[in-house]
């Protein structure tokens, strides 16, 4: 890839969240910088940008808050800054201004015409820039070099009962790794706040690097023989993750992991896992603690756990009416579900009002790699039938599929059939978004998050209600 790369021409702006990166350029020396070196270069400029912006626009109103929003989970309230991505109701997610198809086109992959590497997406999330293949290769090597986990964490996982949910084990291990936190040590020794970003960045890199070994050990302990393969220093992150799981010999599965880890990485800052990591990190909890908290949020059935719930519903449908069910049989099953007071999982989204681009990316992967799979065929039928039924039902604002409606089918096809484990995969991916933002929160000196709350009695008094 050329050393002249796309970057925005807007004066004084280091990060162009809404500006396509392909419209401008930046020149690099022949020696590729590490991600940390590039992050350190960008910090002063971004700090100045934010300071100037707040000085001139700090009193501008982003929106109003209604009583319904306060009771309704703060849905739609504009109150967070999140650098990595923005979600548009009609267009879908943009990572630093790039749509998923644009990421697939522009971010370096491991094979020609293949899926982007998660390393390249993380570089994009941190810097706002599309990395070169050389920079991505360096990041792959750095994560592989940091991948080893302490013996006591291995023993902790090995002693967990197989009946303990994989997500509980995942959060437990990340919490235990906090023993290694460089930020916690530096803070205890009295580090100046202007340097908080440095050990935070190191912690974030270490957390991400160690997740495949943690997640792989959980999978091998709970579902297989307990033997965990070693990380290969010259391989990329997704390959090594696939290897510790035991699926690396299937190159298509490795490509699926590259896609999966990329598209599940970030979905702006208001979702539970992202917001939790931001909130906990704002207390100056180190990246281990903030990400462990995010994992506990991700484990909920209204967040990351939903992907396994969708698959279970789909498999139940298959077992009830058959994988070759007719359109009329499927419609009757759907109406029976809705009339029974249940929802159709995997359809609808809190923000999106169209088909989730992450669903589309997975569907295109399936059309390319497993077009004749019977379960994918059933999912395709659902894709064409469910929106019409939900529209006719009239109680769903968005009748289109979200990311959870497809991921489980792909994993089933390649033999990773253990549904309770699926959210762990989501967690490995979500680390890229959560921890890139934690680095920026410390780099920009963002304060403790502390919104104001009211009691129902106080609200009634405010509005003169009896």
TrEMBL record:
SUPFAM superfamilies referenced in this protein's UniProt entry, alphabetically: Citrate synthase (SSF48256)
Domain of life: Eukaryota
One Pfam family named in its UniProt record: Citrate_synt
InterPro entries according to UniProt: Citrate_synth-like_lrg_a-sub, Citrate_synth-like_sm_a-sub, Citrate_synthase, Citrate_synthase_AS, Citrate_synthase_euk, Citrate_synthase_sf
Keywords from the named record: Transferase
GO cellular component, one term: mitochondrial matrix
GO biological process: carbohydrate metabolic process; citrate metabolic process; tricarboxylic acid cycle
Active site: 303, 349, 404
Single Gene Ontology MF annotation: acyltransferase activity, acyl groups converted into alkyl on transfer
PANTHER family: CITRATE SYNTHASE, CITRATE SYNTHASE, MITOCHONDRIAL
Family, similarity comment: Belongs to the citrate synthase family.
Protein name according to UniProt: Citrate synthase
Source organism of the structure: Lichtheimia corymbifera JMRC:FSU:9682
